[in-house]
């Protein structure tokens, strides 16, 4: 079985939705409780320990989302005609997504970390730096690449982006090992395994399964902006469900 890039996007979106439902709905319910309404009344009937295991399991499954997005980012960079327009889209959606991300994850207007589009935009700038460094065929290439990677890791750490330096290392592995598909997937997913080892039992490595099935083709084309809009919209919807259906107030 082979998967196109569009199929990978749908898999990543499904994993992200499962992950964020566990975080935004179930974990907040367990921590804060809620008011009336049928959904809230139903959740009160579930054993909290059982609900906790369900929420944790959903978050485990969701760990596969970012490695897939990081992989697709490198594919997009390798095939785009204009990386600047590609990066501009990321920056625009980073701005659009910041408030929904903060509301959903932190239950307030300003959150403690930045959303995934900030990470991906920084990753694109890093990949452009790598491409510039590849123009040199001596020791300078490796020196410049190391400096670019260090700068990207430092920047994402400084602004506290969602995946931080680990996200940059993951994207870098997917790009630098691109000439060997197995090594490429293994390298990126190894970083993801290490990143999720503490809180997620290394479940980020689950992304290796669909990535090894990647066909290299785009697949059936639709409106590409569905994939861009999904992130802020699903976060906003989950927040509104928590606020108006489960009656968990903002902090």
TrEMBL record:
Pfam families: TraX
Keywords: Membrane, Transmembrane, Transmembrane helix
Membrane-spanning residues: 7-30, 50-74, 86-106, 142-160, 185-214, 226-248
Entry coiled-coil feature ranges: none
Official protein name in the record: Conjugal transfer protein TraX
Organism this protein belongs to: Enterocloster aldenensis
